[in-house]
């Protein structure tokens, strides 16, 4: 199943997604929980955020794959993990907005190309993993768009989010740590 979790910065969406992954693994008797961390280690702010997220998920049984370019080839980030284990896992991709930025600004893809790559990864992962949880950001309410590159990024993120929302079995926005379901709430009753 595909779960899409969105929310503003500091909304509690990451914590909610981690708890969702734990609940799904417990309910379905799954042994593997994989956290696909997409933030690139560039600068002090990135290091602070990475440290914060590691503390949040400490003790929850996640295996972390630091994969700044997404789901493609995550097995290479998980030495010793068997292919069968990947298929029977809860995979949490944190987060789509970082992945898009990495593809656009580190790999040099334009917004449309990066969006297509993300959609390809998610559509493949959706059928491969038992459960795929994708965390994304709500960056559209600021009202200030700025430079052309920022506009292109925001437009690409909006397009990808809209596409994934239609594909998702569950779609929720976390507001002040409370999930507001737009689709599939009954699938998250534990």
Task: Provide structural commentary.
This protein has helices at residues 13-28, 43-57, 83-87, 96-106, 111-128, 148-167; strands at 2-7, 32-37, 62-66, 89-94, 131-135, 170-175, 178-183. A hairpin with a 2-residue loop joins strand 6 and strand 7 (178-183). Helix 4 crosses helix 5 and helix 5 (111-128) packs parallel to helix 6 (148-167). The chain is globular and about 45 Å long. With 190 residues, it is of the alpha/beta class. The protein has a seven-stranded mixed beta sheet, sandwiched between helices. It has six helices and seven strands.
Instruction: Give the class from helix and strand content and strand pairing.
Output: alpha/beta
Low-pLDDT stretches are none
Largest sheet: 7 strands, mixed
State Rg.
16 Å
């Amino acid at each position: 199943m595909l779960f899409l979790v969105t929310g503003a910065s500091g909304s509690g969406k990451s914590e909610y997604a981690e708890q969702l992954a734990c609940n799904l693994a417990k309910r379905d008797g799954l042994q593997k929980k994989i956290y696909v961390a997409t933030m690139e280690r560039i600068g002090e702010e990135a290091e602070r955020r990475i440290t914060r997220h590691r503390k949040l998920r400490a003790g929850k049984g996640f295996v972390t794959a630091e994969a700044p370019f997404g789901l493609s080839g995550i097995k290479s980030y998980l030495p010793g993990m068997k292919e069968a284990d990947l298929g029977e896992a809860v995979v949490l991709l944190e987060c789509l907005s970082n992945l898009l930025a990495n593809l656009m600004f580190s790999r040099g893809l334009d917004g449309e190309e990066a969006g297509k790559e993300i959609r390809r990864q998610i559509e493949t992962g959706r059928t491969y993993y038992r459960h795929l949880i994708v965390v994304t950001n709500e960056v559209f309410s600021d009202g200030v768009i700025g430079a052309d590159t920022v506009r292109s990024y925001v437009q690409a993120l909006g397009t990808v989010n809209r596409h994934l929302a239609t594909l998702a079995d569950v779609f929720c926005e976390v507001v002040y740590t409370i999930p507001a379901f737009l689709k599939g709430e009954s699938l998250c009753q534990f």
